[in-house]
Design a protein that fits this description.
By secondary structure, this protein is of the alpha/beta class. It has helices at 2-19, 124-129, and strands at residues 25-33, 48-53, 64-66, 72-74, 81-88, 95-101, 106-108, 111-114. Strands 1, 4, 7 and 8 form a four-stranded mixed sheet that branches. The chain has a four-stranded antiparallel sheet with strand order 3-2-5-6, with no helix packed on it. It starts with a helix and ends in a 15-residue tail after the last helix.
Length: 144
């Protein structure tokens, strides 16, 4: 009987000790905005979020996740320290923020990724008329 009570007491201590502690994580939401900063109706699904540990070894310091269909993300359990968190999506400006993560708890980081402005290209004829060389046409002579 004595052993059963002791095992139960240890189980209770373990459960109570871990109930108030949250694993260190970074979470948040990414949204897509147009060139002027107005939110786009499309959800930010598939945004890559990198967690760069500024105090750790490079091999262990860049875990990443992708946002869900609502644009939400949550990092894996991270070691405490200072992190650069960056969100990237093709055609949008990469956003970054710095977060200091303690042993317990979660930190939030929201991102609004701005659409990269598209510029008008020039045709080959327009380039020739304005004397703009094509990349393969540039010839650089070595110095004498």
């Amino acid at each position: 009987m004595r052993c059963k009570c002791l095992r139960g007491a240890w189980l209770l201590v373990i459960l109570v000790g871990s109930a108030g502690c949250a694993a260190p994580r970074i979470l948040g939401r990414a949204t897509l905005v147009d060139e002027n900063g107005a939110p786009l109706p499309r959800a930010a699904s598939g945004v890559t979020v990198n967690f760069i540990n500024l105090e750790g070894k490079i091999e262990e310091s860049v875990p990443s996740v992708q946002t869900d269909p609502q644009g939400k993300y949550e990092s894996p359990v991270l070691t405490p320290g200072k992190y650069t968190v960056e969100a990237a999506y093709p055609g949008y400006v990469i956003e970054r923020t710095t977060i200091v993560l303690s042993k317990h708890g979660k930190k939030k980081a929201a991102f609004a990724l701005k659409k990269i402005r598209e510029s008008k290209g020039r045709s080959v004829r327009e380039s020739k008329e304005e004397n703009i060389p094509n990349p393969g046409e540039v010839q650089i002579k070595p110095p004498f």
